[in-house]
Design a protein that fits this description.
This protein is mainly beta. Helices cover 14% and strands 41% of the residues. The longest helix has 12 residues. 20% of the residues are buried.
Amino acid sequence: MAATLKDFLEECHTLGLVRLIVTSDAGVLEARVNIEKLFYAELPKGKYANMHSEHIEFHLNMDKITDVRFETAEAKRGNFTTYAIRFLDANDKPQMSAFLQWGKPGEYAEGQVEAWAALKDKYGETWKPEPVESV
């Protein structure tokens, strides 16, 4: 499938509420958001997808993401399946994860799991985005 990460991110609004997770060697930041109202900027460091809301500012250097992988797993707490999208760098290290967010553990909003599955069906379990030429 010939598509860019920008194209993919634009489709992520269908997922509804997600938990974005960014991990470094020193900490973890998690935020519950809908991926929507994205805008883009080209900076010397790369091409960025951006999102601003009352509670979060989001900036993702799309040039650093070489693969997108869909994963399911059993929840660490509770008996239900989690649905994640991993944004990986050239070393196969997650730079960001987006998990479907539930109301009560394991109770996803109507259509959320189906939207995740539709994206997985369209892009494949692991997908290599085409380079973003311009933003």
